[in-house]
Amino acid sequence: MTENLQKTEKPLQNRWLVVIAAVVLELALGAIYAWGIYVPNLVAEGWADWQTQLPYSISLASFAVTTVFAGKLKEKIGPRKLIIMSAACLGGGYLLAGILPLTWYSLVLTIGIIGGAGIGFAYALPISTGVAWFPDKKGLVTGLGMAGFGAGALIWYYLFDGIFKDITNGLKIGFIVFGICYAVFIMFSYLFLYEPPKDYTVPGYTPPVAKAADGSTVEEFNMESKEMLKTPQFWMIFVSYMFGVGAGLMVIGIAKKWPAEVLDLAGYDATTVNTVTQLAAALVYPLFNGLGRIVWGILAEKLSWRKALFIMNSVQTVFFILIIFLARSPLGLIIGMAVMAFNYGGNFSLFPLATRETFGPKYISQNYGWVFLSYGVGGILLPMIGAALSGAGHQEAAFIISAVGLAITLVLMYLYKKPSKQ
After folding, report:
1. 213 within a domain of the structure (yes/no)
2. Which of 33, 179, 213, 360 is 20–30 Å from 264 (CA)?
3. Does any domain span residue 1?
4. Is residue 210 assigned to a domain?
5. Selection from 82, 143, 148 nearest residue 117 by Cα
6. In which domain, by residue range, is 264 found?
7. Tens digit of pLDDT for each residue in 243-301?
8. Do residues 116 and 245 lie in contact, with contact meaning Cβ atoms separated by under 8 Å?
9. Interior CA angle at 408 toward 410 and 405, to 5°?
10. H-assigned helices in 190-284
């Protein structure tokens, strides 16, 4: 029996179980955001700044590239086989990282390439499968699913910091334990994260009907990937996503090291510096990252994704300049990190909606995979720039570069117009 038949013959379930499964899945996939907690241990091993960021950047790239292929695979084999592949790669990648010698090239292979692929196989399932169960609450469900990805770092950050950080071989043991946890979390989602029957409807919900300018009903607008890639709208969305996520990923990469240096130069004692940077990197950033995904998803349904994105990136542009000054005080640093994380998280709710509304819902799995490739480009480009400038003592320049990129997205959103089939 094919996977396609299996997913339509499954009985109806309480659709909120799909949301719970999506959140648990994304909590595991959010492992990538805990990378900053490992950096001090790697530096203590003698790693250079660029070496500490390389597995992280490669993981982001592998994640993004795999998401493209996962969109096509989902149409052929269904979401549940992708979940198994995700558990094997992400869990197995971290297990191997704990077993193999601790070198930058071994972590590039295990956590970077293999683990990143594991994230990519399952990452977009809450967007496609989750929304299929909630056509009436697309923004909310997308935001909730993606919130798990953003907030996942909280779990892994505190587990590592509280148990493994200071013990002998703690980094390698942590990788092994986390690999097992990731696999278990992902396989839990296997129980509930599947497609609804083809005739599934939500009681009391009437799907909106596309209308022409004269009020007449028109055929639903859908564009295949090969058509989408030829449109200027795709590249507007791609570049905007690249700068939006790249800026946030740069901050995550240096979220513990850079603020500590700034506060130390400002004259704060070591206890204050450690407490504030721990709070900012381990609690504030992941918490507001997750919260932003929910709130911006809701706002997109009320305002439109384009208006919400324009507002979000306007604020983000300003704060990427202000953080240079705010980071010189503990309160300013906390406020700046909270705002930047809140807006960064919004990208992961707004751009799936942008893809769906611009190119139609029919090919969303494949189309969003191509759009999400920008995450890999931004994930390599800006974190590596941030690491290089941080190592040279010019962290402020990294924030200014990010602010310029975010300002470019404002111009692109101003010029954006929805495409037509012609």
Report:
1. no
2. 33
3. no
4. no
5. 82
6. 9-197+223-415
7. 999 888 777 666 567 777 778 878 888 888 888 887 887 788 878 988 998 899 889 98
8. no
9. 120
10. 225-228, 232-253, 257-265, 270-279
Beta strands in 317-372 (DSSP E): none
Tokens of 93: 């990648």
Return d(Cα 150, Cα 144) in angstroms, integer. 10
Structure tokens that stand for 170 in this block: 């703690």
Using an 8 Å Cβ cutoff, are 142 and 41 in contact?
A: no
The pTM (predicted TM-score) of the whole model is 0.77
Report the candidate in 355, 406, 397 with the shortest Cα–Cα distance to residue 378: 406
The residues, any chain, with a CB within 8 Å of residue 365's CB and separated by 6 or more, are 70, 71, 72, 74, 75, 124, 128
Torsion of CA 81, 85, 87, 93, to 10 degrees: 180
The whole-angstrom separation of Cα 264 and Cα 273 is 7
Q: How many domains does the chain have?
A: 1
Quote the tokens at residue 399.
């924030």
DSSP state, residue 34: G
Does 52 fall in a domain? yes
- Residue keyed to tokens 């704990």: 98
Give dist(CA 94, CA 307) in Å, integer. Answer: 40
The CATH number for 149's domain is 1.20.1250.20
Contact 174, 163 (CB under 8 A): yes
CA distance 353 to 366: 14
pLDDT of 215-232, one tens digit each?
Answer: 444 456 789 889 999 999
